[in-house]
Amino acid sequence: MNSKVNVAIIGSTGYGGVELIRLLASHPGVEVTSVTSSSAAGSPIAEGYPHLTEIRTDLLDDVDAALIKSKADVVFIATPAGIASKLVPSLLEAGLKVIDISGDLRLKSRELYQTWYKKEAAEQQYLDQAVYGLAEVYGEAVRGVDLISNPGCFPTATLLGLIPAVKAGYIDPSTIIIDAKSGVSGAGRGTSLGTHYAEINENFKAYKINKHQHIPEIEQVLGDVAGKPVVTTFTTHLVPMTRGIMSTMYASVQGGYSSEDFVSLYRNYYEGRRFVRIRKDGTWPATKEVSGSNYCDIGFSVDERTGRVTIISVIDNLVKGAAGQAIQNLNLMMGWDETLGLQFVPIYP
Ligand SMILES: NC(=O)C1=CN([C@@H]2O[C@H](COP(=O)(O)OP(=O)(O)OC[C@H]3O[C@@H](n4cnc5c(N)ncnc54)[C@H](OP(=O)(O)O)[C@@H]3O)[C@@H](O)[C@H]2O)C=CC1
Ligand SMILES: CC(=O)N[C@@H](CCC(=O)OP(=O)(O)O)C(=O)O
To answer: What top-level branch of life does the organism fall under (predicted)?
Structure first.
């Protein structure tokens, strides 16, 4: 690699942004040349994040397309929903390549976005232009493009766990039920009643039942794969841990396939994709087994008694569910090996 690509991070003071800083610090092809803030420009990022002391000594920049373009060629956006839709036109106009980690460009329908996110949608041309960066499935489509929409954390774990079976017709898509759990960092750094210590510690609760914004994202992709509309039941839970997502999925098996058949199907589908690890029959992944890494681990159990399969998929929400997958997409966008700078061994215990 001769010269490094300069990148900027908008939303660098949030959990997704600061995870990008951590991972990119050891990426051999990238230099982070601008970290921005809409509320603390001019101050050092290490003021809010002392763990970055001496690692990032620069000051936070304003969120300004021309300023960012003067320092970088690629920009990651890690802001709350409703902001990237406003920033993307000027960033593209300035000549930047953009990878958006928020949900603003994932749904192809403006109406669907407005219904589920309760915010104004991006202009249709940007929804049409953005390539959905579920790297193991749409990686080829990401190569060389200017605008990538990084999948949501729950959809990443869920879709990687379902797509091969839906595509091969091993399960009936109309029977899928998804039961998902997330660590609290999934809610971002801003404090709220629902996520402060006394509310979360020693507690386990469901939220956004039948109203979660990731439902249409999951259904959009499964519908594409199945070739017909798919609707699912998807329930999210908050777990008193910092990182990690487990998505447990149930569906009726079609064709009498066994757990071993599922293992073979998934190993073939993900052959050569280093970040998806398929567990052998009879073993199921746990969140700690992928923590701090870009892995998605998947296990299966077919119950002959009920004719249903249970699929368990785990990721680290901040890595494979956000910053790691965004870097994987950057690698594909640049025509590099998708694993560049991402070969972290999970942190255990
Ligand atoms: N946390 C997770 O596990 C995942 C998060 N995501 C998505 O990634 C995005 C970021 O999430 P996360 O990092 O957790 O969120 P945080 O709340 O931790 O951080 C968001 C950051 O956005 C910045 N911001 C807020 N308003 C604006 C604005 N108007 N213009 C520019 N920047 C702004 C803020 O920084 P400042 O005030 O300094 O500008 C803030 O630090 C969200 O859309 C989230 O849904 C996706 C997958 C997983
Ligand atoms: C624990 C927790 O609150 N998680 C968030 C995930 C946010 C996210 O990744 O959503 P978008 O990027 O699609 O907005 C949630 O369930 O809404």
So the answer is: Bacteria
Asked if 167 and 58 sit in the same domain, the reply is no
**In terms of DSSP H, where are the helices of 118-234?**
124-129, 135-142, 153-168, 197-200, 214-226
Q: Give the helix ranges, DSSP H, for 41-190.
A: 45-48, 65-71, 84-93, 110-117, 124-129, 135-142, 153-168
Domain presence at residue 252: yes
Q: Which domain, by its residues, includes 265?
A: 154-316
CA of 294 to the centre of ligand 2 (A): 18
Q: What is the pLDDT of residue 182?
A: 98
CA of 254 to the centre of ligand 2 (A): 32
Q: What is the CATH number of the domain that holds 177?
A: 3.30.360.10
Active-site option among 153, 162, 221, 263: 153
Pocket of ligand 1 (CB under 6 A): 10-11, 13-17, 37-40, 63, 78-81, 83, 101-103, 152-153, 185-186, 188-190, 317-318, 321-322
Residue 322 within any structural domain of the chain: no
Does 3 have pLDDT greater than 90?
A: no
Residue 27 to residue 324: CA distance in whole angstroms: 11
Same domain membership, residue 244 and residue 118 = no
Q: Is 296 a catalytic residue?
A: no
% of the chain exceeding 90 in pLDDT: 97
